[in-house]
Amino acid sequence: MKRLRYLIIIVFTALTCHVWAAVGVADLRCELLVDPITIDNQQPRLSWKINAEDRDVSQTAYHVLVSSSLANLEKNVGDLWDSGEVASSNSISVYYGGKALQSRQAVFWKVRISTNKGVSAWSSAASWQMGLLYYKDWTGRWIGFDEYFKTDNSATGQVAARYFRKEFTVAKPIKKAMVYVMGLGLYELYLNGKKVGDQVLAPSPTDYTENIKYNVFDVTALLKQGDQALGVLLGNGRFYAMRQAKPYKVKTFGFPKLQLQLILTYADGRTEWVKTDDSWKGTSEGPITANNEYDGERYDARKEWSGWAKAGFDDSQWLKARYVQEPGGQYEAQLNANMKVMKEISPVSVTKKGNGRYVLDFGQNFAGWVKMRVKGHAGTVVGLRFAESLTDSGELFTTNLRDAKATDEYILKGGEEEEWEPRFTYHGFRYVEVDGFPGEVKTSDFTGRVVYDDMATIGSFSSSNTLLNQIHQNAWWSIASNYKGMPVDCPQRNERQPWLGDRPMSAYGESFLFDNTLLYTKWLEDIRLSQQADGAIPDVAPAFWRYYSDNVSWPGTYLFIAEMLFKQTGDIRILKKHYPYMKKWMDYMRVRYMDAEGIIGKDSYGDWCFPPRTIEDGRGKIADKKYPSALISAAYYYHLLGLMERFSKLTDNAADSDTFTSTAAQLKIDFNKKFYHAAGYYGTNSLTDNLLPLYFGLADAQNVDKVAARVVTIVEKENNGHLSTGVVGTQWIMRTLTNIGRADLAYRLATKKTYPSWGYMVENGATSIWELWNGNTAHPKMNSQNHVMMLGDLLIWYYEHLAGIQSGGDAFQSIVMKPSFVEGLDDVDASYESLQGKISSSWKKNKSLLAWHIGIPPNTKATIYVPTSDVANITEGDKKLTQVEGVKYLRKEKDELVLEVGSGNYQFKIKR
């Protein structure tokens, strides 16, 4: 067989943890990652992408080599695992099957594939590093100060940062140096005065009594022979809770604490450990005198020490570090990315106010902070206060922040120009009030630092409709703003909690924009670990707030996230791991809440935040009102039974399948008996009450058309083309309308500019997504201007239905492309970077012609639906369809022809 000149991109995944290495195979060069991912999974998932220009390329076999050294790998010696030639098309879920891996072991691997077009050369090498697999691998002790100091204010939760340092000596040449750190709640690590890594607000938050994430860094380049110093700065984060006043509601874990070990491997092969113990020195007397996620950070530059994290610093006034109680959670390598400063933006204007105040406008609602450049006298206090919007008089509007102060304070040390940004807080804002700044404030003095989890944007969408494009952009900003080591609801007020109810389908839509698999895999673990022994799942996970209300629709997100991850990644282990816990919750709800009518009607929130009838009806009114709905609860439970029936078969638990099927069948009978009305509607006849039975398949066959007609009537006539759904109904509305043949009506909803709609937000100045449809008039108590929950299934509809990029259910190994070529929309251009590779769909139409360009990655096939009933109307690359390589005619469905295409780029033209 011929050798292929393909590019193979290696993707290493440990429960979908990605490591990338890429190089042109033909030149036989190797490129290793500088910073191997550290994992503690003994059977990682190996994946690769194939980049080939040929059409219809499919893998027929693979050969994986895994070695303990790069030298062995270059000799094609798989001393850890040699898979041999395996006949398989699998390129995304090959599980390591070799020798047991050891703590701190470096592992190197590569792959060679066979395809229907030939055989590739060996790929470039990639590597990973094993973490600390056992509790005893941590030889240090937890250190800290479990007490308040005079620098702290226990009443307000303003606890000063803790500083720790340790000096040591390197006497011989170093071959490698790795540092393992657990700094809680947040840390910054320094070695010889230089910060280690570019992460911020690390590590990711968890319930620290259940699990603790550790980070690992290769610090070889920062070491030299001679005297050295480690420095660690600890902030509060979620460990010392932002609010202490309600212990019955808010979970807190104590004072900041640290465990660290630096492992030095010398050139002669010997190792030495530098670890946390009571030989370290610590203090709270540093320049960060307060730090709190809600309230901000206070920094007194006059208290800075020069060289505190360098050898030779005089720490005689520092305290001896104390041994403290460990948090209790299991130690785990952090697979999801830390947060980073991902973008920088500049203010678009500065407005001078009275009393020496200025207001900066960054032109965009985002999450992060500002970097300030300032010069003035020592002791000058500059205050930075943050808000999402302004009052009519141009002052900051902060009422919707509740009691979050959202204020940073910097005290100048004086002298040369000073540059500062906070370390242990973040804000959700567009506007910043600057108070006390010496001299005239200029926009060049401030830089907006956009902070979210370090993940790639993998989806793109644009169209001929500028409003659709702006909503997509606003969605990107809201999603990014609320990725904080977990998906939170909002970045600005005194909440910022990982509510389950915000993301049953929104998370699925987010996955088309961001490479968020690791984040949601981590969140799935947060949910599992928050489950009570009896099966109850909270409304917030990690359960920083103790809310276990036992409704169905909020905790049910556990199943929806598992489904989304499996659908997008194909990693069956996600389902296998969580299946017992999902089943336990389903049984808990059935046993505890099924009533005599066979209905599980336990609900807490109803269709949360549905829009008031008019914008004036909601003016000044609080949206924080609950309208429990037994229909929502029962409908969701029915749908979740269907998921569990599928999960049971996929995870070798088929014995449970009959129980889920029979329970669902009976629930469908009982549901229709209780909620269906002969006039052709469900429940209270609200839009949501009719959407759910229609989408979930609860409506009896003879009633489907009537219920569908009722949905259309509500939207088209009674709502004049608007929605009337809250967070529940909005998760299903766009796909339901499309599924019943009214994509045109879905498009009308998506492009409305009047209340209530996404366009109404844009028309009223929104640069992100509001929490409420009437966010410009509602009472500010619950009125975030940067939320994701009202996105519902909108982004899914963008990508799957307008662009036609949809998985066949197997992580895009098969692709379904059935765009809605709606009237009024002239073109769409979208792409999505799947695990298989980039999928693109770009179409443009006029009255006589539809041009549709699609890109299908190697090792996949796509079923495409072409809107014509005559094959003679279709050409590809100016050739008749019968003359085109890689295109197969399948069938005719109504007024569409169904074709199958292999990998490659295609340019279809369809006469209209």
UniProtKB/TrEMBL annotation:
Residues 172-342 form the Bacterial alpha-L-rhamnosidase N-terminal domain. Keywords: Hydrolase. Residues 458-801 form the Alpha-L-rhamnosidase six-hairpin glycosidase domain. It catalyses: Hydrolysis of terminal non-reducing alpha-L-rhamnose residues in alpha-L-rhamnosides. This is alpha-L-rhamnosidase. Residues 804-877 form the Alpha-L-rhamnosidase C-terminal domain. It is an enzyme of class 3 (hydrolase). It holds the Pfam family Bac_rhamnosid. Residues 352-452 form the Alpha-L-rhamnosidase concanavalin-like domain. Its EC number is 3.2.1.40. One of its GO terms (molecular function) is hydrolase activity. The lineage of its organism: Bacteria, Pseudomonadati, Bacteroidota, Sphingobacteriia, Sphingobacteriales.
